[in-house]
Structure formats: C-alpha cells, structure tokens
Amino acid sequence: MKRLARTPKLSESEEQKAVLSLDNKEVVEIVNDYNERYLHWEEVNRRKDKLPVKPEYIWHLMKFFRIMKSRSIVFGRYSLHYNILDDFQEKLHILDKGAAGNLASTIDAISDTREKYILNSLMEEAIASSQIEGATPSRRVAKEMLRENRRPRNKDERMIINNYNTMKYILKIKNEELTPELLLEIQKRMTYGTLDDKEDEGTFRDNNEIRVFDNDGEVLHVPPEHSEIPELVDALCDFANDRNNSFVHPIIKGILLHYLLNYIHPFNDGNGRTGRSLFYWYVLRKDYWLFEYMSVSRLIYQKRRQYKMVYQYAESDLMFDSDNGLGDLTYFIRFNLNTIMESLEHIQKYLKEKQKEQYLALKKLEESDNLNTRQLQIIQEFVKHPQKTINIKTIMSTYGVAYATARNDLFYLEKLGYLKKIKAGKEFIFIFNDSRKSDEENI
C-alpha cells in the first residue's frame, strides 16, 4: 500500500468545463451516486473507462457539493472537516435510541449478571487491538491466558495483558477529564514491558524520526513535528473535554479523537492502542454503556487493510486548499460507524442465539419426567442465571421444605449432572454445570 498523493485540482478553464458537464443527466446521477457512497478519488479514477466525462470533472463536481455541506471544527492551528451522510443519521439514531435498551433487556433476560459479558468484551477488545499492532497469539490462547490470569510468556502476550488491564482502567476513569498526564498514564499502561526503550513508556516523543509504515515498508503517514506535540495534546484534551463551542455527536467525536491521536502520533509507540482506547473512554464518558459489550477492534482487525486505507483517504483529500485542514475525515467516520454497527449486530445475534438456547433448555426441562415441580424450578433458575450459587438452606427458605428434602433435591440434581457441588467449610454450595450435555436420557 503506497502513500496516496493529494487528490487532483483543476485549472480555472477545466473547472468551467466540469461545471458545464452538469447539463449531462448521466453526469449528475453519477456525481450524486458517488457522493452518496462517498467514494475517494482513487475509487473514481478506477472507474474512468465507464465515465461519460473525465474522472477529474466528476471529482471536481463531487468536491463542490461536499464542500457546500461540510462541517468545520477548529483544532489548535488546524481545522477538522467532515460531512454527515444520510446513513450516519440513521446509524446514530439507532445507537442513541434503540440499541442500548434492547441490548440491556436481552442481557437481563438471559443472565443475572452483566459482568461476564463486559469482561468477555474487554478480552476481545484487548486481543484484537493488540493483534492490529502485530501481536501473534491466537484468540483462544490469549483468552485462556486472561481467564487463567497466567503470566505472559513473551512481549506479544504482555501487550494483550496490558491492553486488557488498560481497558479495565478506562472503565474506572471514564468520568475523569482528559489531561496530558492521564493520556501519558494510558499509554504507559498500554506499553509497559513491551518497548525496546523503557524510557518511551509514559512519555511524549522528543524526535521527528517516527513514521507510520505499511507491511512493505512504505511510509503512510508523517506525523507533525515533535515541537507541536504539547500544543496539539492540549487541543486534544480541550476537544475531548468539550471545551469547544461546536456540538459534535458524541460517537462522531469519539471517532475523531481516535483519528486525531493517531494523526498527532505523540508517542514513540502505542499510538494505535491508545487512540482506540481513547474512543472507548469518550463514548463511555457520554453514557454509551452499550460499548462495554462490544469489541469494535475485533472487526477493525478483520478489516485492517481498509482501516489503514481510510486514514490514507482522509489525509490525501483536503477539503480546502487554503487552510491547515487535516483532510476529509468523513472516510474515517464512515468506516468506524459501519464497523460499530456491525459489531452491534454481532453482539445482538450472539445474545439472540443464547436466548434461544435458554428457551430450548427450559422447554426440554418442562418435558422432563424425572424431575418434580420443585426440582424443575431450581434448574430453571440456574438456566436463567448460570452464575448463581445456592446451598441447602437457600432451598429450605425459598420453597419452605425440610432440611432432608432440600438436601435430597440438590444431591439428586447433582447426580443427574445438572449441578456441581463444592465443599465450603462444613457444608456444600451448588453451582450450575453448564458443560453438561443435555441429552434426551437426562432431560
């Protein structure tokens, strides 16, 4: 992947020819279609053989209509430009209104605790965000390491553990304002024990040697001079803390923070992971708690070539020639919004499947001939709330039965394989055996 050149500009005479081509109905339809899909110049130019006029004319007209609708935000000595597309409004509305409530009710319906879903999401996010930066352990190995709290064997595993611990830290500090010191702390936690030079942990870069490369060694991005970092980080904090008068939708703003951190590239290492965590910090700060259940980076990892490309699209396509714009950030916003919605669809599909599994399990239980009504109710509660623990006294008080009856119920269910018993002092506690095979003989 080569670094993209700046998008083309026309001479005054060519601009006039481009405008005159609007008399062609086909040109108007193409311009509208390409803008609706928000194609980049590279994508327009690839279609040149199918266009009725020069691709530069189509591009000039596309840019004209984009500029007319664009939004601008002052960011230090720079400016941010982007467009709000029609499908952005729809996606943001879903995230604002319906998604969180539906997600909460589904989770509550199948579990008595949200903790395991949050932890699983944090694991997925930590693993994928690290894999984007080159960590090699598989998801299965990485999850086993995190669940077992095993010590890392190498830097890649340390990177994943750092990411996981930092994501948990983000949950704790989500209500704090962003400061340069907090940003340094996040990067320090992300990079602990993984850098060639330990001095790079928790410090801003003091050189201009940093470049962003692709896998073939091509330079994709040259960050601003290191002397600009203090001013840019201050501007980033002001933007994150809503000290800017312009309203920006919180999810859009979180995406912009993600982009800006990586554009500034204030650290010698850990910029990508820190940028993605900054997005989570901001949307959680704005009470979009549904992101606690979503791993956006998992899908970014699957589309990592596109992820790199939209950075290129944004930086190579300046909205205006005369200012210090960072490019057209619509490409980056669109990619991330699409990824967020896809991530939401994944978690909704997963929870729907779990809900269906629970329903079928309860249905089979109801058809069981070897359980009495009380025993059936005990197992139904465990199916709905698999993290539950009970003891003999709980059954006695809940169902109003004698000690012997309660004991017989639990030991019988343990014998059938529904429950596991664990010694706790002088008595037993019982937990759900969720690894049990629900074959027809026992159900």
From TrEMBL:
It holds the Pfam family HTH_DeoR. Transmembrane segments: none annotated. Keywords: Transcription, Transcription regulation. Residues 178-335 form the Fido domain. GO terms for molecular function: DNA-binding transcription factor activity. The keyword Repressor does not apply. This is Fido domain-containing protein.
